[in-house]
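Ticket #4471: structure export looks truncated?
Reporter: QA, pipeline team
Priority: medium

Steps to reproduce: submit the single chain below to the structure queue and open the exported record.
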Amino acid sequence: MAIARYSPLSDLVSLRDAMDQLFQESFIRPNGWSGLPAGQISTPVDLWETKDAYHLRADLPGMTPEDIAINVTGDTVTLSGETKAMTDVANEGWLRQERRAGKFQRSFTLPVQIDANAVTATFSNGILDLTLPKSEAVKPKTVKIQAK
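Actual output as written to the record:
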């Protein structure tokens, strides 16, 4: 039977490594890389509903409107595009490369049909804002009761 010596220093180093990994996954890569196909990047979005429309806001830093495709069909909106990697630095010159580059695609199915002809999109400072009006056919109608 062997006697194992307790080493608090090894536990402390292990805790430090775990905290470093947690910090990296939470702050440097807030959406993580797991689950994405190779070469795809994560694109954070906010999506909310008002009485007459859905609103989508996406962070797309370093992109231009020409780099982004928006498709609306029925009750689905799809964003896609590609962020290009920097080409002005030689590969062997990198010390750290954390900025994202690659393709992205996000699709959202909404609870009701969207009026595709009335969708508006604005892009400012790397933020895409979409207004997706609900179709008139699915908006609630108020019916007046006539007294006899």
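Status: closed, not a bug. The export was complete when the record was re-opened. Leaving a note from the reviewer for reference: The chain has one helix and seven strands.
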